[in-house]
């Protein structure tokens, strides 16, 4: 009988984010084929950890709210602790997600010559890591050296890989493995259920912060017929008070429902007529894939990266200001174009046949990211 390899999954936390969602899906299968240890910087857990997966927390004090100096000190301690864990558990393959774990994985590769190290970049670097000085320093000076020490990098977008090569001098074997989804034929909005309705309900799911840009949706509401559109948002975040203030100023409070943090995202999606992604930047928007997997038509900003790949097989489109483009699997608009969003929502409301088309097309597109298919691609990397 073949001995199972010992693998570790290194991540900052296991909270309700897109990267963590991907890890949670992969763990369901990895635990059957490997001895798996989930290693987190700190104890922040939202998703279920499958039976058989060991959990290790590297720091009880590390926090996203700490100062830069404290974070640097904590990171150094975490690095040595992870090194000892690799030796103690005789880890064969270390798989890391996101920038700081990826850098630490590069250090592990230098310190453990027999260790196979794989890293995964989940954001579009040129946009995501320019937010503050520490992020810029990390990307510009650490990526070229430490990323390239690893055996392989996979991201969830061809645009991410190109950006890493062109702007961060990351030279190493790279591939693209898109985010997985569990497609359930019994949990979807059927095309025949899509009909003309007086009130058109649309939803956005995600943390309320600058990159997700829900303020774009709020600014669109006054451009819509007030009694005919209703917006729902699922999630929490640092911009909630600012958004609520804007709703009051624009006098559109009655058109918005805040669901807060929810565990059953798909059930919330199905109750709506359309999903709207308003982001300024993404890696690969999981929630767009989830919306498509339940047959919900999608309107998305053509941000870097992910929407073009998901909604038009990465075939370029020319989107004029104030207009939308009907793609293969959904509708694309420019970032921050409230006029285009208002037009797209009004169009979908008036044309249920188009929504039926996108419901079916999106569901079929989501099947290409089925968990079993994506899992096989990940195991090929693990096995080398």
TrEMBL record:
Residue ranges of the TM segments: 91-111
Name the UniProt record assigns to this protein: N-acetylgalactosamine-N, N'-diacetylbacillosaminyl-diphospho-undecaprenol 4-alpha-N-acetylgalactosaminyltransferase
Keyword Membrane assigned: yes
A GO molecular-function annotation: glycosyltransferase activity
Taxonomic placement: Bacteria, Pseudomonadati, Bacteroidota, Flavobacteriia, Flavobacteriales
Domain Glycosyltransferase subfamily 4-like N-terminal intervals: 17-184
CDD domains: GT4_GT28_WabH-like
UniProt keyword terms in alphabetical order: Membrane, Transferase, Transmembrane, Transmembrane helix
Domain Glycosyl transferase family intervals: 201-357
InterPro entries per record: Glyco_trans_1, Glyco_trans_4-like_N
Superkingdom of origin organism: Bacteria
Signal peptide segment: none
């Amino acid at each position: 009988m073949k001995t199972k390899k010992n693998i570790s999954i290194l991540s900052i936390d296991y909270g309700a984010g897109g990267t963590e969602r991907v890890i949670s899906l992969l763990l369901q299968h990895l635990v059957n084929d490997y001895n798996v240890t989930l290693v987190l910087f700190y104890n922040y857990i939202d998703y279920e950890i499958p039976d058989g997966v060991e959990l290790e927390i590297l720091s009880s004090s590390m926090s996203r709210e700490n100062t830069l100096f404290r974070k640097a000190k904590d990171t150094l301690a975490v690095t040595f602790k992870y090194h000892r864990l690799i030796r103690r558990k005789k880890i064969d393959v270390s798989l890391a997600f996101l920038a700081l774990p990826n850098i630490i994985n590069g250090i592990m590769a230098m310190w453990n010559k027999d260790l196979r190290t794989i890293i995964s970049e989940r954001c579009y670097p040129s946009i995501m890591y320019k937010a503050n000085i520490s992020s810029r320093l990390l990307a510009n000076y650490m990526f070229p050296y430490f990323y390239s020490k690893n055996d392989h990098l996979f991201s969830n977008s061809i645009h991410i890989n190109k950006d890493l090569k062109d702007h961060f001098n990351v030279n190493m074997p790279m591939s693209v493995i898109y985010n997985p989804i569990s497609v359930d034929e019994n949990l979807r909005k059927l095309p025949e259920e899509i009909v003309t309705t007086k009130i058109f309900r649309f939803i956005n799911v995600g943390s309320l912060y600058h990159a997700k840009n829900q303020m774009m949706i709020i600014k669109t509401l006054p451009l819509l017929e007030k009694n005919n559109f209703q917006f729902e948002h699922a999630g929490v975040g640092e911009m909630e008070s600012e958004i609520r203030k804007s709703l009051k100023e624009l006098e559109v409070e009655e058109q918005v429902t805040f669901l807060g943090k929810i565990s059953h995202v798909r059930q919330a999606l199905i109750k709506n007529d359309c999903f709207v992604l308003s982001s300024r930047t993404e890696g690969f928007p999981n929630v767009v894939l989830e919306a498509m997997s339940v047959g919900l038509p999608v309107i998305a900003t053509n941000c870097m990266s992910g929407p073009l790949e998901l909604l038009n097989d990465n075939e370029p489109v020319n989107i004029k200001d104030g207009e939308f483009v009907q793609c293969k699997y959904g509708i694309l608009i420019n970032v921050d174009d409230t006029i285009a969003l208002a037009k797209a929502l009004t169009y979908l409301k008036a044309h249920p046949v188009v929504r039926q088309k996108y419901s079916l097309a999106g569901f079929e597109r989501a099947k290409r990211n089925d968990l079993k298919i994506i899992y096989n691609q990940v195991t090929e990397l693990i096995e080398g």
